[in-house]
Specification:
The chain has helices spanning 42-58, 86-95, 99-113, 126-132, 177-189, 196-199, 203-206, 211-229, 235-242, 249-259, 378-466, 468-480, and strands at residues 3-10, 19-25, 30-36, 64-66, 69-72, 75-79, 143-144, 147-148, 156-158, 162-164, 170-171, 175-176, 265-270, 280-283, 293-298, 305-309, 315-325, 329-331, 335-336, 339-340, 345-348, 355-357, 366-375. By secondary structure, it is of the alpha+beta class. It has three domains: 3-240, no CATH class; 262-376, Jelly Rolls (Sandwich), CATH 2.60.120; 377-453. Strands 15, 17, 18, 20, 21 and 23 form a six-stranded antiparallel β-sheet that branches. The chain has a five-stranded antiparallel β-sheet with strand order 1-2-3-6-5, with helices on one face. Helix 5 crosses helix 8. The longest helix has 89 residues, at 378-466. It is flat, with a radius of gyration of 45 Å. It starts with a strand and ends with a helix. Residues 388-467 form a coiled coil. Keywords: Coiled coil.
Length: 482
Amino acid sequence: MKNVIYSKYSNDRADKFKIRTDIVEDLENRFVRKKALTQEANTHINDIYENYKLLSEAYKGSKICINKCHRIDDGVEFEYIEGSTLEEELDELLKKKRYNELVNKIQEYVSTIETGIGTGKFKKTKDFIKIFGDVNLPSSLRAGDINDIDLVFSNIIVGRKWNIIDYEWSFNFSIPFNFIIYRALHYYMYGSAKRHEVINLGLYKLMGITDDEIVQYDIMERNFQSYVLGTLIPTRDLYTTIAEMNINVQNVIERERKNSYKKTMQVFYDYGNGFTESQSYKFIPEIDSNNKVKIEIPLASNTKQIRIDPSNYVCIVNIDSILGYNENYYSLDAITNGLSLSEKFILFSTDDPQIVLSDIKLNTSRIEVQLEVQMISKEIVVRLYSLLQEKEDQLKHEYYKIEGLTKEVEEIHELKEQISIMEEQLRNKEEQLKNKEEQLKNKEEQLKNKEEQLKNKEQYINEIHASKGWKALCMTKKLLGR
């Protein structure tokens, strides 16, 4: 006999989805059972079993293992699988601040679950619209025929295989693959306050989900929740439905006190002996409605350099202008210990960001600076530097490709020049050949004239020989014995 050791009632749903989940055990093993709480929910229970068969076929031969399911008299029964969930593994990486490994693990998740998706494209069907709404999504999105949209990290137990322990919300019609990833990321990032750092890592874009998709997926998720709940309001939402928002003033004051040091600016003067704390002053700047800070720094005549520390924390600084005044305004160039993202934007990855102004002209009485300072988390800086490094590597790769193409182009130009020279030589040869042919033609003409002259002379001689006078002369010579 199997004894129930745990039960969970999912009854804050529409009647057709109200079920009970039990963990039961006998003398040797534990099992998980799902049973309908209403007559209408029996169809939902039957769908779970049918989806088990479809998902098992879709992920056959892959790293994914769908938790075994079989029918029982009043529901379905699953294996009870123990082990660490993917969510717990990600939390451990987050706790150790190993952000790159966390991102890589999520990328492994994407590549693992996509093995069961196939190569089909998204098609908006009537069933899709009924559950997720008539959202505006391109048909070029990749989509599977059978989709477990609840492939969240807590539903995956990681081992030699990745075991999917719950697939209650599976649908056998086209759904964008990126929506499944969106849900997994969304419920991980916002599922616990301890994961607030993850929100700033830009995971949606890193996993290939666009801003436009996020808007549509958010609508899809709200429509899906409405479909599941029907007219009910879940207990978790009752407080926000009936209560006004509470603000813990003490927490706000404490948070501002802890963060105030980050907003402090400091100006250093160098009178020839470098920058020192004794030759500096601190202040909390006033920020205008456009989040801009305007600073006016008075100068003594012997000031060599000025250093501005815009914050005591990692930040991005947008420098609008730096002007010196010596009866006329002039621009000053800045030297920083940050990374220039553009002409004006500078990323500082240190808690001691510095902006140094050294090209101060004679008789400058003051320096006016206008800038904007945006604090960012150190985790974002780590990811930004990683992304910038990737971009730099890509640019280097492109540069080497262009360099190789340039070399090929130079070789082609060189070949063209050689061909041009050979063509010129060929033209000269052709011209010489043409001259030779002309000379030969002239020689042939001269020969023809000579032959004509010779022919005329031969004819003349023949005429002489045939004349009576010549014959008489020959007779006379003969008679005379000559």
